[in-house]
């Protein structure tokens, strides 16, 4: 198990850095996004999709904090990150031809019970 963690260190460090960068970049780009949308405020097509009240909500942080978007997507991103990190472990087992050993390995209790019941 230690070997797998050692092999995955680059991937873990890369994903951790990416998540932290995305987390800390949200705050500075919030003002940029709102100012960019305010520049298009006279556009009737944008008004149809983004009313003025929504633009005022985007200026306040309470809208982001009270929104369930972050909680919902955080719960979806964690399994995706887990799959990305675990995929090479299984693909390496497939390349080496040792995946069958992992899948057919039985529990000690089952082996003991089989031998015990066979002996009766």
TrEMBL record:
Any one Gene Ontology cellular component term annotated for this protein: plasma membrane
This protein's record includes keyword Flavoprotein: no
Record Pfam families: ABC2_membrane_2
Keywords: Membrane, Transmembrane, Transmembrane helix
Regions that span the bilayer: 12-29, 73-90
Molecular function (Gene Ontology), one example: ABC-type transporter activity
Top-rank taxon: Bacteria
Protein known as: ABC transporter permease
Taxonomic lineage of the native organism: Bacteria, Thermotogati, Thermotogota, Thermotogae, Thermotogales
């Amino acid at each position: 198990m230690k070997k797998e963690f050692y092999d995955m260190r680059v991937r873990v460090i890369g994903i951790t850095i990416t998540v932290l960068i995305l987390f800390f970049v949200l705050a500075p780009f919030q003002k940029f996004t709102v100012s960019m949308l305010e520049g298009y405020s006279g556009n009737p097509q944008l008004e149809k999709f983004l009313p003025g009240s929504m633009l005022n909500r985007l200026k306040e942080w309470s809208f982001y904090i009270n929104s369930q978007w972050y909680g919902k997507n955080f719960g979806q991103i964690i399994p995706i990150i887990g799959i990305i990190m675990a995929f090479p472990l299984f693909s390496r087992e497939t390349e080496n031809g040792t995946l069958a050993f992992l899948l057919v390995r039985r529990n000690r209790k089952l082996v003991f019970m089989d031998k015990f019941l066979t002996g009766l």
